[in-house]
Specification:
This protein has 452 residues and is of the alpha+beta class. Helix content is 46%, strand content 16%. Helix 3 packs across helix 4, helix 4 crosses helix 7 and helix 8 crosses helix 15. The longest helix has 31 residues. It starts with 6 loop residues before the first helix and ends in a 19-residue tail after the last strand. The relative contact order is 0.13.
Amino acid sequence: MKLKVLAFCLACVGFASYTSAQNNIAEEVAWVVGDQPIWKSEIEEMYQQMQYERIPINGNPYCAIPERIAVEKLYLHQAELDTVEVQESMISQEVDSRINYFITNLGSKEKVEEYFNKSIPELRETLKENSRNTQKIRMVQHSLTKDLKTTPSDVRRYFDKLEADSIPFVPMQVEVQIMTLNPEIPREEIDEVKSRLREYSNRINSGEADFSTLAILYSEDGSSVHGGEIGFRGRSALVPEYAAVAFNLNDTKKVSKIVETEYGFHIIQLIEKRGDRINTRHILLRPKVSDKDLEVAVGRLDSIRTDILNNKFTFEEAVPFISQDKDTRFSRGVMNNENNNTTRFEMSHLPQEIAKVVNGMQVGEISKPFIMKSTKNNRDIVAIVKLTNRIDAHKANLSDDYQMIKGMYEDAAKSKILKEWLDKKIKDTYVRIEESWQNCEFEHKGWNKAKK
C-alpha cells in the first residue's frame, strides 16, 4: 500500500489526518514547561500517529511522549535565547520536496489534501513550522557538542570498555576501483530525439496538444506521472543547464528551447515563480546507445584490460586517461561509499551490476568488461572493476573498523553532553506535571518536582 511508503516522512512531521479523533478529546493541560503547556490532545495525536506508523515507544506512551515533547520545548527555548535563525529558503525547499513526495506517493494534490485534512497551503505552513523547529533543535545540539575533541586514546578506551555483546558485527565489505567508458551516441539518434522534442514544442505552442499530456505519454523522467511537473525548486536544486533556461522563462504558455543536461534532452514549461524558487514541468528524452557502439566500448576496455594484465601499465595509471567517470577518474578509480563516507561497501550498497561481478572475484583481480546503467542518468555504459580489498564479516575491531568505532564513541560522547545539559536545564526550568500524569519513570531525572 502506497501509504506505507510515507512512514518516515509522516513521523518527522508528527501529524496526520486525525481531526475527528481530536474533536472527541477534552482539552486538558498535562504538563507545563516554563510557560508552555503540553496538551492532552497534543499527546494523543502524537501517540495515534506513532501507533499508525508503528514507531516503537519505550515504556508507557503517556510518560514517554510528553517527556519527548517537553525535551523539544527546552531545546526550542534555548534556540530563542541563542537567537538561532534558520535559512527560510532551505526550509521552503525542504517543504516543497516533502509535498512533492506526498503527491508522488498518494497520487494527486487532492488526495494529499484529503489524507491530511488540510489544504496544500495549510499543509505547507504546518510542515514549515515543524521543519523550522527541527532545524533549530539540530543547531542547538550542534552548538552544545561542537567543541568535542576526539583522540585515538579516547577511542581505544571507549572500545576497551565495551561489553562483548555491545561490539557490533560488521558484514563482509569490499573496496573497489572502477574504469568506465560512455559509448558514443550516433548523431542520427541525437537528431531524432531533438526532432521529436521540436514536434512536441510545435504541438504545444500551437494549442494542438497539452504539455502535461505529452509528458505523461512520452517523457522518460519519473515526473511523467505528474505531467512532467517537478515542484518548486531553488536554482541550486536543479542542474545548471536546466536552471539557466528555466529561470529565464516568463510565459507560462510557451515552451523553452531544447536543453541538454547530463540526463538527456529536455523541453521546459514554466508553471509559477515564487521568489527564488520555480515550479516547472518538462519532457525528457534520452538518446539510446546502439548495440554496435556498446560492443565497440566493450572491445576497447577488453584491450585495455589485456594490456594491464600484460604489465604495460597499471589499472591506476590508466584510469585518469581512459575512464569517463567524473567521480573517480582523478582518485585512481577508487569508489567512495556515500552511506558511510569511506571506501568500503557492503555488497547491498554497490550498484547491482557491480555487486554481481565483484561477488566472484579475488582480491587484486580485474573483471572483464560489462555493461551497466549509469547511476546518474540511467544510460548504458561499459565498465571494468578491480577488487582491491575484501574484509570478511567479523566483530568490529580497532584495526579494521577504527572510523566506525570512532563514530560510535563520538555519538556516545555527544549523547552524554546533551544529557548533562538537559539534566541541568530541567533543574533550572519551571515544570509542573498534573497529578494524573505523574506516576512515571522518566528517562531524565528532575521533571517531577512535586515529589521532592
